[in-house]
Amino acid sequence: MAFTVNIYYTGTDGSARKFAEEMISSGLADRVRAEKGNLRYEYFFPAEDAETVLLIDAWENDEALDFHHKSPIMKEIAALREKYRLKMRVQKFTEIT
């Protein structure tokens, strides 16, 4: 069953935006988009919170997300998240058909 995950990355001094920019410029975001089962991987910037970035991440099923979490890409993302000292808040929404 398809689902969407909203991940809010929050930092200080523009670090969340720098994280998203590096995810895109380094090609990491495109590599996630190319993973089997990924349906969406997009960053958004909340108008009222300059220190937060929203990632909307959608997957075909739990197996695809589990594979992503165990992939080398995830280790690179975690290292980048640590580099920018970001906090995360996660919400999961399941598609109802």
Summarize the structure.
With 97 residues, the protein is α+β, with helices and mostly antiparallel strands.
Characterization of this structure:
The chain has 97 residues and is α+β, with helices and mostly antiparallel strands. The protein has a single domain (3-94), classed as 2-Layer Sandwich (Alpha-Beta Plaits). Helices cover 38% and strands 32% of the residues. The protein contains four helices and four strands, in the order βααββααβ. The protein has a four-stranded antiparallel beta sheet. A hairpin with a 7-residue loop joins strand 2 (38-44) and strand 3 (52-59). The longest helix is centred in the last third of the chain and has 12 residues, at 72-83. 11% of the residues are buried.
Helix/strand layout:
Elements: E1 3-10, H1 15-25, H2 28-33, E2 38-44, E3 52-59, H3 62-69, H4 72-83, E4 87-94
Antiparallel strand pairs: 1-3, 1-4, 2-3
